[in-house]
Amino acid sequence: MATVVVMPQLGNSVESCLIVSWQVKVGDEIAENAIVCEVETDKASMEVPSTAAGTVLALLWDEGDDVPVKEPLLIVGAAGEDPKPALDAVGWAGKDGEGDAAPATQPTEASATPGVAAQPAERATATGAASPRARNLAAANSLDLGAVEEGSGPGGRVIERDVKEALTSATPAAARAGAHGAAAQGTGLGGRVTTTDLTAGPAPETVAPTMPAARPATAVDADFPGPSEATQVKGVRKVISERMMNSLATSAQLTYTTTANAQGLLDLRKKLKNSDPALGMTGVTIGDLVGYAAVRAAAQNPSHNAHLADGVLTTFERVHLGFACDTPRGLLVPTVRNASLMSLREFSAVSKQLANEAIQGSINPDLLSGATFTVSNLGGFGIESFTPLLNVPQTAILGVDAIFPRVKVNADGSVGAEQRIGLSLTADHRVIDGADAARFLQDLVRFIEAIDITVLG
Length: 457
Description:
The chain contains 12 helices and 20 strands. The protein starts with a strand and ends with a helix. It has helices at 84-89, 109-112, 132-140, 160-168, 172-176, 195-199, 235-250, 263-273, 286-300, 344-360, 434-449, 451-454; strands spanning 3-6, 16-22, 29-30, 35-40, 45-49, 54-59, 66-68, 72-77, 124-125, 150-151, 253-261, 306-309, 312-315, 321-323, 325-327, 330-332, 335-336, 373-377, 396-409, 415-428.
């Protein structure tokens, strides 16, 4: 019998993977451990190997599909073998739960017959289960997932498509009021149901006014707006988009800014760079020093080293530091676990290793979650101040700005200059008051300005 290759669980926190591209096609002969497709989780991009050798009999999903882990992915067997018995043996009911669904690479009877429309995905009563993308999209649009009564995923699982349909059929306000999927006529843009439609009676028939003929475009407008390119937002970029919207929609963010004397940072960095390579400290950067100081400040301010979810504030004894990392696939946030227990040398080495793995796309997805406090450093780009967005459910995030010379008035009244580094702290005002945020920044400034003492532990 043919072998069913399933989507592996690429990390303890991974629930589903999005297929970026297939590396094989039906009819290809493949070896065991051959790469069959490239996938993206909500955190990283990686390749999926085959667990069997043989001929590819069927690809069960399309590029762009979000595949739950442990679900059948493709069928491998002998050339010409029927894949259906293998699918029946594992209870495969189609990628969207349809009982008679055909593999994605094989045309269904409806699609092969001209003029016959494809059957819509079978729906079942929602069980409360939802895919990560469905949850993110619902949260970003303030839609209560409990109001989505039917799911088109396996076993009634609510998937992204179901949320999109709920949002398309009603305005966000109407959706929150229970109007999604309603059959009532809508008066909103494009026939969307609004909250007014829920209480208003049938609208009287109106006669559309006759619009005056449009004026011909002038010669100046002939080339307006010029060449453009439309690109579908998908993969990691789509996940980032949804998470940013979710961050703003579900928290009360406020940013506080200050500066610290950076001369100590510059002096220590110079000493470490010129130190004996055998000490393993020559690669320590300004970013490492500031991150190490941030860990110390977070450890002293429990409300900043915390998660807020479902009305419950969880504070952590240890600091697990997330740091924003710019990669070819977009923003990723690796986590330095137990950063508060590390020496400076260990902290610097682990940070660099995680950054390299994230950039190369080989990082373990489990290391892209679990942070209790995050640092985003744009100082290398010359940014003087910015507003970092919370990495929810975390309650605070530190933005590190560039070092710039600032005017200084000396004790004798003369004017000079000193190097100062900008710091931008965004905190969730639901649990962190302004005074608490100010105290965190005061602690951080002290740690930075006495960095030679701070790194001693």
